[in-house]
Design a protein that fits this description.
The chain is mostly helical. The chain is 62% helix and 0% strand. α1 crosses α2. The chain starts with 9 loop residues before the first helix and ends in a 6-residue tail after the last helix.
């Protein structure tokens, strides 16, 4: 199955986003945290970045 066909459950997405926020203080940037977490869960960094941005918008942390 390629990445375009792979679907992640809402639970996996939520956990990945939570890990980015929990661990971004351990990294030089949010992007570095995203790359680290994405490697651990097996998704592309850009995919996780989109999930993080959506969470930020949904939570009122980012306009959009």
């Amino acid at each position: 199955m390629n990445d375009k066909q792979r679907r992640y459950s809402p639970e996996v997405r939520a956990r990945a986003v939570r890990l980015v926020f929990e661990r971004q203080g351990e990294h030089r940037s949010q992007w570095a945290a995203i790359e680290s977490v994405a490697a651990k869960i097996g998704c592309k960094s850009e995919t996780l970045r989109l999930w993080v941005r959506q969470h930020e918008r949904d939570s009122g942390l980012r306009e959009g």
